[in-house]
Recover the amino acids of this structure.
């Protein structure tokens, strides 16, 4: 599947130079409801859910992607108000966890304490569920074990591999071309496609800039 990672310009260039993703610990994600989409009105459920999230968070981090680079809100929120870059990667489908967007909190099954199958299904649902307000992100994610990541001053990174091949570089509508020491030529020689984004003329999505004179350079 071709998926996209949005970056402010400086972090996109760093990622391209060092060939790696930043891995976000779960406790640092921008949604406080991550892995807590269960209805926690019951005190015992609340205690279990917080313990579950703590256990998962201690060992795992996430690399989040979007299925599309055309949503302007993604550029606004994650690519420094359209001045950044979206990097497109070909990632094996079986490695990606799709997100299920829901309206209401998940109600635990009545037999969740006594039925292992029910418990496994509940955990699987919690790992994949976010509120419908996030649906514009079209998110899929890679889970990475923090212990296997590079730790650099408390930040975690995971190297690109044959399972995560870069295929596209999409330059934002407000991106300012920089002297990037020939990175673009190297990537183009490797078959990476460069796209310049612009707003649609008749809709509200981003679209490729067709005018060659207006194409931006990395």
């Amino acid at each position: 599947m071709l998926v996209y990672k949005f970056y402010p310009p400086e972090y996109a260039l760093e990622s391209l130079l060092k060939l790696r993703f930043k891995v976000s610990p779960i406790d640092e994600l921008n949604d406080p409801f991550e892995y807590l989409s269960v209805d926690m009105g019951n005190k015992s459920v609340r205690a279990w859910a917080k313990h579950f999230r703590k256990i998962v968070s201690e060992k795992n981090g996430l690399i989040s992607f979007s299925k599309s680079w055309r949503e302007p809100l993604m550029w606004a929120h994650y690519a420094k108000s359209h001045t950044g870059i979206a990097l497109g990667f070909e990632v094996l489908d079986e490695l990606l966890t799709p997100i299920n967007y829901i309206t209401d909190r998940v109600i635990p099954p009545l037999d969740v304490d006594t039925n292992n199958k029910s418990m496994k299904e509940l955990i699987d649902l919690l790992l994949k569920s976010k509120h419908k307000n996030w649906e514009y992100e079209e998110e899929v994610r890679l889970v990475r074990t923090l212990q296997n990541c590079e730790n650099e001053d408390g930040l975690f990174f995971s190297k690109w591999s044959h399972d995560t091949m870069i295929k596209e570089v999409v330059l934002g509508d407000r991106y300012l071309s920089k002297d990037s020491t020939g990175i673009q030529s190297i990537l183009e020689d490797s078959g990476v496609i460069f796209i310049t984004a612009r707003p649609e003329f008749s809709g509200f999505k981003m679209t490729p800039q067709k005018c060659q004179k207006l194409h931006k350079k990395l």
